[in-house]
Each structure stands twice: as structure tokens, then as C-alpha cells.
Amino acid sequence: MAAPAPKSPANPIRRHLHVARCLPPDPPPPPPPTSKPPSPNPLLSLLSAVPDWADAVQEGRVRDRRPLYDHASWREHRSSRRHLRHLLTSLSSRVILSLAPPVSALTAFAAAIATYNTLLPAYELTASSLPYQLTAPALALLLVFRTEASYARFDEGRKAWMRVLAGAAELAGMVTHRPHASRQAEDEPLRRALLNYILAFPVALKCHIISDSDVKMDLQGLLAQDDLNVILASKHRPRCIIEFISQSLQMLDLDEQKRSIMESKLSCFLEGIGVCEQLIGIPIPLSYTRLTSRFLVLWHLTLPVILWDECKWIVVPATFISAASLFCIEEVGVLIEEPFPMLALDALCKQLHDGIKDMMAVQNSVHTRLVAQNKSHGGRNRSAENGWPGSKREDAKID
């Protein structure tokens, strides 16, 4: 007699979804054999030394953690001494340090043009300033569009994170709400685990969108080691945590209406993932960035020729000031185009964690106080037959 066929799992669709989200990624294929790289050119290495240094300083400052502002920070921010403070800290600004390669190159080119015109006055390079007067509005519009589009992306990322944090706080509040006394002890371990999953989601999303983040260290104190191993092995860690939250809600002893409301709160998590990945993966159309960069470079390469008749050697500091000002505006637009390193995400995640801890402490205090108050008034006849307070003192309390 043939052996009976094995039974299929009770819910193959859910099991398949869980495995698909949390399996470790396939190992990458071995890299193809490459030939020996050519020896670097000493001249190119010398010319790229300054840009490499500026990029290293900028990327190092990008990874700095941003703090949240408090009253003292706002007081210093609007202080009348801010202009002097900003001027004295110019050399430590990553925006200014990142402008060292283009500004120094354009200033050196202006000095070369001035030297050439001084040594060979018969063949000096001069031109009319009329083209500059006609193209100046176009350059201004390009810079305005660049900065406005970058700030719109920054604001969109900030709003997406505020929705994620608000949804996490609201869902955590519904989880920490005290259930019926008969179910409180039974569901308490699952509720604590679910609360940790909710707190872990913003941290995992932060590590998902910011490079060089140590997700293992950030989640170490929030999750159990077995849960952490599953999340670290998954391809998409924020979605894996959402799966933990969803299945925990299914296991929790809740009425269907409340469970549906709590599951609907997960939509803000999915929306936050979509918005963040879209902002990371899709920059401002590269045509605008390239056009603005080329326009700025060509503008300042021809600026010494245009200004020579009127300014002579003043074209060198004039080129430096113009390049430093306009390239600085463009650099700020490029920096805030990726909004998440500019946001204080670590501080926001910590603020959410501290806020939920404080909310739980307040709930316990209020619950203890109400229970004690209810017991102290349990033996008293607080109301008359008609339902109104039975004494003037209690009437005064209600008023």
C-alpha cells in the first residue's frame, strides 16, 4: 500500500510570505578575474589630492549625528552674535571646505588670465559685458530652482518621518492600553515583544536609508537575540519587522474591530518605506544638476575676460567672491537633496523611545491612583436615589 501523502501546511500563503520576506539573501557571484590595474599617474594623483581631501571631510561630516533643538539652541540660533560666530567658523564648515577645489581652480585661472593680459597687453583677452547681463537672470533661475527642488525633497522626507513616528507612537499607545484584568497576565509577554517591534521599526528604517549604519548595534537592546538574527538575515529589514508586528497582532487576544484598527496603522509604516526609498533612489533630474554645474563653471571661466577692462587685477578677488557665493548656493542644494543625513533621526528615535517609556509610567501611575481612589470610595454612598451627589462637598468637587 502506498504511503499517505504529507499534509500541506494550514496556511501556505502566509508561510510563503513570511519566508519570502525574511530569508537571507543569495550569496553574490564571485567577481570575474581582473587584470592588474595600471599604475597611477603622479600628476593626476597630485591634482586629485585636494578634491579627495574635501570629499573625505564632507562625507565624514555627513555621518555626524544631528541633535534636536531645545530652547537654548533656539536662543543661540537667533542670537545677534550669530553672524560673527558663523564667520569665525567658516573654515570648519563642510560646505565651504567642499568648495575648495572649484573655487581655488577658478581663482587660479583668473590669476593666469590677469598675468597673461599684463605681460601681453597687445594680445589681451577682453570682451563685452553684454552677454553676462543677458544670461545673469538664467543663472539666477537655475540656482533658485535647484535650491527650491532640494528643499522640497528635504521637507517631504521630514514629513514622511513625522508620519512614521506618529504612527508608531499611536500604535504603541494602543498596545500599552491596559486590557481586561483576566487577559492582562496572559498577553503581557506578547504585548512587550510587540512594543519592542514597534520601537525597532524606526531604527531599522533609519539604518536602511543611511549608509554605514550599524543596525545590529542599534537594535541590540530592543529585540531578543533570536528575533535580531532573523531581522539581520532578511533582505529588507524594515519589512521583516512589519511582518513581526503583523503576526504578533494576529496572535494577540483582541476583538476584531480593534485588531483591524491596529493593523491599519501599519499603512503609515509601508508609506514611509516607499517615500524614503523613492527619495533615496530617484534624485532631482540629472539634466538640471549638470546644466547648473556647467553654467557656473563656464560663467566663472569667462568672468576674468569680461571684467578685465574695468577691474584689471581686481578680477582675481572678484572671481573668488563670485565663485564662492554662487557655488555655495549650489552646494547647499546638492547637500539637502538627500534629506535623511540632514535630519536628526537618531535623536527622533530616542525621543520616541523615551516618550513611550514615559507614557507607560504615566499609565501605571494613573491606573494605580484610580484603583486606590475607587477602593477608598467603595463603601460610601456617593449618590442619592436620583443619581445626583449625596452631599454638598461632592457636589462642589464636580462643579
UniProtKB/TrEMBL annotation:
InterPro entries: VCCN1/2, YneE/VCCN1/2-like
Protein name: Uncharacterized protein
Cellular compartments annotated: Membrane
Organism of provenance: Panicum miliaceum
Region spans: Disordered: 1-42, 373-399
GO process annotations (BP): regulation of photosynthesis, light reaction
Record's keyword terms, sorted: Ion transport, Membrane, Transmembrane, Transmembrane helix, Transport
Membrane topology: Multi-pass membrane protein
GO molecular function: voltage-gated chloride channel activity
Superkingdom of origin: Eukaryota
Biased composition (Pro residues): 24-41
Gene Ontology cellular component annotations, sorted alphabetically: membrane
